[in-house]
Design goal:
This protein is flat. It is built from 12 helices and no strands. The relative contact order is 0.14. It has helices at about 5-10, 30-40, 40-65, 95-130, 135-150, 150-160, 165-190, 195-205, 210-215, 220-245, 255-265, 270-300. Helix 4 packs parallel to helix 7. The chain has a single domain (about 55-305), classed as MetI-like (MetI-like fold), CATH 1.10.3720.10. The chain is about 70% helix and about 0% strand. It is an all-alpha fold and about 300 residues long. The chain starts with a helix and ends in a 7-residue tail after the last helix.
């Protein structure tokens, strides 16, 4: 071996063996998404706000010395104080406790309506997109018919049939709200079913049910999560708007919309009684939107930095 070969094929020293080594942390898709979400300050702030709102809604009325429905006519429309942080309403009820109790109802309406929309929209849109053809066309025309009727009409009809209650509001909101989810899932499934992994599952004999639920819908979970996250504030706002108009949840239940409607008559004298529930609605909706935006970025591989 000449000198040139000796230089080319010389044995590396121990400290030279790792010169080209680049240490990269191994991460799953979920771990990478959570890391990206934590780096989004606005989404993280929204998640913290939502956690505080949920904890206050659950434990606030339990530890408070006041009840959301107990009246004290001697303290009607009292100003904020150490005993009553937000003051009292026209019946002497503590506004702060009623705000916390209203958070329970508003969040429950939003979450349950979103879950109903998730189940119906995902299954309906998945089946429509996977089968395709005339079945897809028929299912989408049914969707168009449902969507052509104003959502308010469904809600009012449900209220007339079942009365003004939390259940009626949730059913009324859910009748047409699942359509957006169905259209999104249908489009994603139609795109994914033509890819190699779906073809491979079909070739090896996987059933249509397994291909749809185990392969296609699983790969749309990111878009589904984002859509559900944005459905919750929409349902909360719809319930609050209905209650504010007087056709939603009725007393003595106290959703945020009901509280704003009760205080509307006194808005010129005691404007803060209306402002408190409206601020609670706005803060919660903004928090959900921030979280939804953050999840959309974190779960989208093309948006990662």
């Amino acid at each position: 071996m000449d000198d040139r070969e000796a230089i080319l094929f010389r044995k590396l020293e121990a400290e030279e063996k790792n010169d080209e080594f680049i240490a990269v942390e191994s991460q799953t898709f979920l771990q990478a998404a959570m890391k990206n979400f934590r780096h989004n300050k606005r989404a993280l702030a929204g998640a913290v706000i939502l956690l505080i709102v949920i904890l206050l809604a659950i434990f606030g009325p339990m530890i408070s010395p006041y009840s959301y429905e107990t009246q004290n006519t001697a303290l009607k429309n009292a100003a904020p104080s150490a005993a009553h942080w937000f003051g009292t309403d026209k019946f002497g009820r503590d506004i702060f406790v009623r705000i916390l109790y209203g958070a329970r109802i508003s969040l429950m309406v939003g979450l349950v309506a979103a879950i109903i929309n998730l189940v119906i929209g995902t299954v309906y849109g998945g089946i429509s997109g996977y089968i395709g053809g005339k079945t897809d066309m028929l299912m989408m025309r049914i969707v168009d018919i449902i969507y052509s009727v104003p959502a308010m009409l469904y809600i009012v009809l449900i209220m007339l049939i079942f009365g003004a209650s939390v259940t009626s509001v949730m059913i009324g909101i859910s009748i047409s709200s699942w359509i957006d989810m169905a259209r999104i899932v249908r489009q994603e499934v139609r795109s994914l079913k033509e890819q190699e992994f779906a073809m491979a599952a079909f070739v090896i004999g996987a059933s249509d049910k397994r291909i749809l639920f185990k392969h296609l819908l699983v790969n749309t979970v990111g878009q589904i999560i984002v859509t559900v996250t944005l459905m919750v504030p929409q349902a909360i706002f719809t319930e609050a708007w209905l209650s504010f108009l007087g056709v939603g949840i009725s007393a003595p239940l106290a959703s945020w919309g009901t509280l704003a409607q009760d205080a509307r008559a006194l808005i010129e004298i005691y404007p803060m009684q209306t402002a408190y529930p409206m601020l609670a609605i706005c803060i919660t909706i903004f928090a959900f939107n921030f979280v939804g935006e953050g999840l959309g970025t974190a779960l989208d591989p093309k948006a990662k930095r």
